[in-house]
């Protein structure tokens, strides 16, 4: 399959708007579950307002949150797909800029020193583009995640020592959730990276934070920790928007990687209640959005 870069540009533009307007089904189901289990009256009221906001945004074709985020595109390429790598990255960039321009989206991307905003959601090394490969035949998937500042500011890394043990890892995660309180627009998805190097550990936390709900960590030990932490953070009493209740988080997600014998890194990356993402899968038979 030859990857059509003009088609990629259009898909990337469409995905940006879809992600901003349509909350994924698993997150809607997560809200329903929290509404079922929340016992605090204020928490129930806040959850109800959030759910109504989602319905209004979809009914009026408006965006779920004014923060259009830093655009992130995760691209996975299967076997027997031919493409121009540099051209692919440029097509993604054009798509993000095109969607911002054509849909009059707020550009949230600025130069880190001058704070200049080019009003196209693009800048140095932005959009963030991750390219990976798998064994699916003639298949390309493009996932778009607009990562807002409120949740992205809930990012932490600590290089623990092996002697600190896994208890220190769990304590670090819970302490960060307490520290953030309502500033990350809970209920959240708490992404946790364990292992790797410092940069890989942070990347794992981002993968975990943007993973669909009800998908357990593939590593058995990681899955046990995320179940323990999911229970723990919802016993903190922070609640939706930090106003009290049990609905602090949809879930804690953990991703792991092998690490050095003298390291024990842990990272946290938060995703807010507006856990937006959209995906397109390209095959010779056409394009499917999800």
TrEMBL record:
Keywords: 4Fe-4S, Iron, Iron-sulfur, Lyase, Metal-binding. Residues 11-280 form the Fe-S hydro-lyase tartrate dehydratase alpha-type catalytic domain. It comes from the Bacteria. Its EC number is 4.2.1.2, 4.2.1.32. The keyword Calcium does not apply. It is an enzyme of class 4 (lyase). One of its GO terms (molecular function) is fumarate hydratase activity. Belongs to the class-I fumarase family. This is Fumarate hydratase. The lineage of its organism: Bacteria, Pseudomonadati, Pseudomonadota, Alphaproteobacteria, Hyphomicrobiales.
């Amino acid at each position: 399959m030859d990857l059509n870069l003009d088609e990629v540009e259009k898909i990337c533009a469409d995905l940006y708007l879809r992600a901003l307007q349509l909350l994924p089904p698993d997150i809607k189901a997560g809200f329903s579950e929290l509404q079922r289990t929340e016992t605090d009256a204020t928490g129930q009221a806040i959850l109800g307002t959030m759910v109504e906001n989602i319905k209004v945004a979809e009914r009026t074709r408006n965006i779920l949150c004014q923060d259009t985020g830093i655009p992130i595109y995760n691209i996975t390429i299967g076997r027997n797909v031919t493409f121009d790598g540099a051209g692919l990255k440029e097509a993604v960039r054009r798509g993000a800029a095109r969607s911002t321009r054509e849909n009059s989206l707020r550009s949230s991307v600025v130069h880190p020193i001058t704070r200049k905003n080019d009003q196209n959601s693009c800048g140095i090394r932005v959009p963030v583009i991750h390219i990976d490969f798998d064994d699916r035949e003639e298949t390309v998937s493009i996932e778009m995640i607009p990562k807002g500042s409120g949740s992205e500011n809930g990012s932490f890394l600590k290089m623990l020592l092996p002697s600190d043990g896994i208890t220190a890892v769990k304590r670090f995660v819970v302490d960060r959730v307490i520290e953030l309180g309502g500033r990350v627009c809970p209920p959240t998805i708490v992404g946790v990276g364990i292992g790797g190097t410092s940069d890989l550990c942070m990347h794992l936390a981002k993968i975990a934070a943007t993973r669909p709900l009800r998908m357990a960590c593939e590593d058995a030990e990681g899955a046990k920790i995320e179940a323990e932490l999911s229970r723990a953070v919802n016993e903190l009493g922070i609640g939706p928007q930090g106003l009290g209740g049990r609905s602090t988080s949809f879930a804690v997600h953990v991703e792991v990687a092998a690490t050095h014998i003298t390291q024990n890194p842990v990272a946290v990356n938060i995703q807010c209640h507006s856990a937006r993402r959209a995906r397109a899968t390209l095959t010779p038979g056409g394009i499917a959005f999800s």
